[in-house]
């Protein structure tokens, strides 16, 4: 078994104003006052706050990520943000293929793959999201959907340093519902198998696979204890330092 250092990443989505830096400062001080968790800690604020949060978290052990980026190089693309710009602002990772991007912006696996390429080219870590919708789950298609998204969205140059996978069942996001730990284990085992088959045992076993969807302090320890769950991608419960720190507690 390859040792994988877990990652707890907070996805702030379209939330946060400049004053929200107080939550990041509170998290940094909570991390400093307590025993260091055995995991990496990351926050993905909206684009507008990346530079400020990167400045605030310097030397705190908290890293900063973008929530999306363009697949294109800088140029005439109004409203888009290049991965190189996120790197310049202080981000070290970018979430790509989140289900809200796939749904609201019709992003396909091909788009997500191109974005992950751009993230890698900028020297950043791509956090690539996959997950089934509720109708797909009801039809028993979960594993096929996840396998298809993985094979389409993860670029060939992916490895454990430049890529993290996040399994997020769409029906569990923001709903307070979570799969059973048995279901999480089954999907994560399938993802591991796909990664090992495609990238070989060494790389495939070293890549981190996060679980996301209604993770909170009350269920984090149980979910994080599941085999092949290497941390969490957290939405709502990452907005407040105390809640997010309660999730990080799963690794203390
Ligand atoms: P949630 O969101 O924790 O609010 O369910 C998770 C996500 O979308 O990454």
Describe the structure.
There is one protein chain. With 252 residues, the protein is α/β, with parallel strands linked by helices. It has one domain (7-251): Alpha-Beta Barrel (TIM Barrel). Helices cover 42% and strands 15% of the residues. The chain is built from eleven helices and eight strands. The protein has helices spanning 21-33, 50-57, 83-89, 99-104, 109-121, 134-138, 142-153, 181-199, 201-206, 217-224, 241-248, and strands spanning 7-11, 40-44, 62-66, 93-96, 125-130, 163-167, 208-212, 231-234. An eight-stranded parallel β-barrel has the order 1-2-3-4-5-6-7-8, surrounded by seven helices. Helix 1 packs parallel to helix 11 (241-248), helix 7 (142-153) packs parallel to helix 8 and helix 10 runs parallel beside helix 11 (241-248). The chain starts with 6 loop residues before the first strand and ends with a helix. The mean pLDDT is 97. 2-phosphoglycolic acid binds at residues 11, 168, 173-174, 212-215, 233-237.
